[in-house]
From TrEMBL:
The gene is thiT. Keywords: Membrane, Transmembrane, Transmembrane helix. GO terms for cellular component: plasma membrane. This is Energy-coupled thiamine transporter ThiT. Gene3D superfamilies: 1.10.1760.20. Pfam families: Thia_YuaJ. InterPro entries: Thia_Transptr_ThiT (IPR012651). Coiled coil: none annotated. The chain crosses the membrane at residues 25-43, 55-77, 83-105, 112-134, 154-175, 187-205, 211-228, 235-253, 259-276, 288-312, 332-349. GO terms for molecular function: thiamine transmembrane transporter activity.
């Protein structure tokens, strides 16, 4: 595991290209903002703390949207993203940012409905363009898809189906207390959280040679969404996010491998909210941490199976492929989840933040008024 990290690309001090320079600056700037926000929350109280928390939220939304636009533009300029993917994704990010700002200033039925419709339409357009892109052109030069080679197709499909069934079963088992169906509120917040995770995914601390990165808590928004709205909605949001992740460093050997490494791996992140409504657990930090561990294990299982069948050729001579896959995948999945758990636990230690989370965790159905702060 240590050797994998030593041979990986580190981005804490990389200025060899505009993309890496911006990534390095953004990582440190984000760390500074987190520290500043934390100090403000510690040094203030009462109404001042609530006001600071609201300001921090809107700053975060605008900051994340700006990062998304910046990194997408740099990827486009460096030919990392094709026009058919760049323009709809850029429109999606702008819509999500605008929705987040609107929801910050006003939370009623009309705003939730408008945000839900706009983000849904932008997301559908993005996914359609993505399907067109990956189904046309030369697989290797245009889509990053390589020959499946010796991939054991039947076994890969069977294991993908089993893991998918496990995630769905857990989502429904622990989501029995969730509110049924999506409403405009949950759709709007799903879109905002997906966008935030997508933007933060560009803030890589380290990238491993055969793919996989440790990021600056990029999965935290998705996990908090699952914690707020439940596992069923969380799994769906994670699946959408996983599809969007295929925009970055696409590497596809086989359709089942694509499912395991992208939609299914990140759908498991939606299990993070599985203990949010467990009354026997008193502390929200514990509920979140336990759910995050399960989500991380689920994601690791997806990448582990994919690695065995699709990336075994990279295993050192004499080392079992299964052992290589586990060590390689764990070397970035586990640290990535650990960062999320630490940051999430710190956020949930704030009474003001917990209050904001509970407003939506326990909120009425869309169309009914959402309680405002006194």
């Amino acid at each position: 595991m240590l050797l994998n990290l030593l041979s990986a690309e580190w981005f804490l001090f990389r200025f060899d290209s505009p993309m890496n320079a911006c990534r390095t600056i953004a990582i440190w700037l984000s760390a500074v903002l987190v520290i500043v926000f934390a100090l403000i929350m510690l040094l203030t109280s009462g109404g001042t703390r609530k006001k600071c928390a609201k300001i921090s939220l809107i700053v975060t939304i605008v900051y994340v949207a700006a990062l998304s636009v910046l990194f997408l533009s740099l990827s486009f300029a460096e030919d990392g993203i094709k026009p058919i993917l760049f323009y709809p994704l850029l429109a999606l990010i702008l819509v999500l940012g605008a929705s987040g700002v609107c929801l910050y200033f006003r939370r009623d039925k009309a705003v939730f409905l408008a945000a839900g419709i706009a983000t849904g339409a932008a997301l559908i357009a993005t996914l359609v363009c993505m399907m067109v892109h990956f189904s046309t052109g030369d697989p290797v030069t245009d889509n990053g898809i390589e020959d499946a080679g010796t991939v054991n197709t039947l076994a890969l499909w069977l294991l993908a189906a089993v893991l998918l069934a496990a995630v769905v079963a857990l989502a429904f088992l622990f989501g029995r207390k969730d509110k049924k169906g999506f409403d405009s509120r949950s759709i709007a917040f799903a879109a905002v959280c997906i966008a935030m995770s997508f933007a933060l995914s560009y803030l890589r601390i380290v990238k491993l040679p055969q793919g996989g990165s440790i990021t600056l808590a990029s999965l935290l928004p998705l996990m908090l969404y699952s914690y707020m709205f439940g596992t069923k909605k969380g799994v769906f949001a994670g699946m959408i996010y996983g599809v969007l992740q295929a925009f970055q460093d696409t590497y596809i050997l086989h359709p089942a491998q694509f499912l395991l490494d992208y939609p299914l791996a990140f759908s498991a992140i939606g299990l993070a909210g599985m203990f949010a409504r467990t009354d026997s657990l008193r502390y929200p930090q514990v509920k979140f941490a336990l759910g995050a561990v399960v989500a991380g294990v689920g994601r690791l299982a997806m990448h582990f199976v994919s690695g065995i069948f699709a990336f075994g050729e990279f295993a050192p001579e004499g080392q079992p492929v299964a052992l290589y896959s586990f060590i390689y995948q764990a070397s970035y999945v586990l640290p990535d989840i650990a960062i999320v758990i630490v940051v999430g636990a710190l956020l949930l230690s704030s009474r003001t933040f917990r209050h904001e989370i509970e407003r939506y965790t326990l909120a009425p159905a869309a169309g009914e008024p959402v309680a405002e702060d006194k």
